[in-house]
């Protein structure tokens, strides 16, 4: 038992490296705080193009969504970070991770928003237009609020996955939480930093995960 504690819960090692873990946690939160709104905005734009565009636009949107969803996010990060310089575009690690996460999740969020908009009866659009609302007002005041309420559970679930996926930053040497834990492990020759990082992820994401579960149960109850 003592050997287990010494290897996976060594407080002396943790006391030496906790500033490194805090730095990694901060970067993880910052990546999520920038990538999530980026992906949400991209997904909403894609859904609007599909819902209100012409036939050619819709086909292009479908191809784009399928393309973004088919590529693993790690592959996207490699293409963005190592491929774009051949086109004369050089991005730092932070921007590359945000762009890769944003592109990948734009496809998922776009499909979620599109499903939400498609679930609104067309008669509501006609009724709102008959009241004198502009097309933009119909969208903002009538359609989007209802669509978001209908798909809040899958949106929250996908946001949770995005936060966890910020760990891909380790691929381009971004010192997010997982990479910081690995560096700390190399410094201490002890896996305690990895266990501490796992615990931090759990404390950070478990309440959000429970909230997602509640939303999913409510959505099923409504159906």
TrEMBL record:
Record membrane topology: Multi-pass membrane protein
Q: Does the keyword Hydrolase apply?
A: no
- Every ABC transmembrane type-1 domain range: 25-212
Pfam families noted in UniProt: BPD_transp_1
Q: Superkingdom, according to UniProt?
A: Bacteria
Q: What does this protein do?
A: Part of the binding-protein-dependent transport system for glutamine; probably responsible for the translocation of the substrate across the membrane.
Official protein name in the record: Amino acid ABC transporter permease
């Amino acid at each position: 038992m003592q050997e287990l504690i010494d290897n996976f819960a060594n407080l002396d090692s943790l006391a030496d490296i906790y500033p490194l873990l805090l730095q990694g946690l901060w970067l993880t939160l910052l990546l999520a705080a920038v990538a999530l709104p980026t992906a949400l905005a991209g997904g909403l734009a894609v859904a609007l193009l599909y819902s209100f565009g012409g036939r050619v636009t819709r086909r292009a949107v479908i191809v784009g969504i399928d393309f973004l969803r088919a590529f693993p996010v790690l592959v996207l990060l490699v293409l963005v970070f190592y491929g774009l310089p051949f086109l004369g575009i050089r991005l730092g690690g932070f921007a590359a991770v945000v762009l890769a996460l944003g592109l990948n999740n734009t496809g998922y969020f776009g499909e979620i928003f599109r499903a939400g908009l498609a679930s609104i009866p067309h008669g509501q659009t006609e009724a709102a237009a008959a009241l004198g609302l502009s097309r933009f007002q119909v969208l903002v005041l009538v359609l989007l609020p209802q669509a978001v309420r209908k798909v809040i559970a899958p949106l929250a679930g996908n946001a949770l996955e995005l936060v966890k996926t910020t760990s891909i930053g380790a691929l381009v040497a971004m010192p997010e939480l997982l990479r910081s834990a690995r560096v700390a492990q190399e410094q201490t020759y002890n896996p305690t930093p990895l266990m501490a990082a796992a615990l931090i992820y759990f404390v950070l994401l478990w309440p959000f995960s429970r909230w997602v579960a509640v939303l999913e149960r409510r959505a099923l109850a409504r159906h």
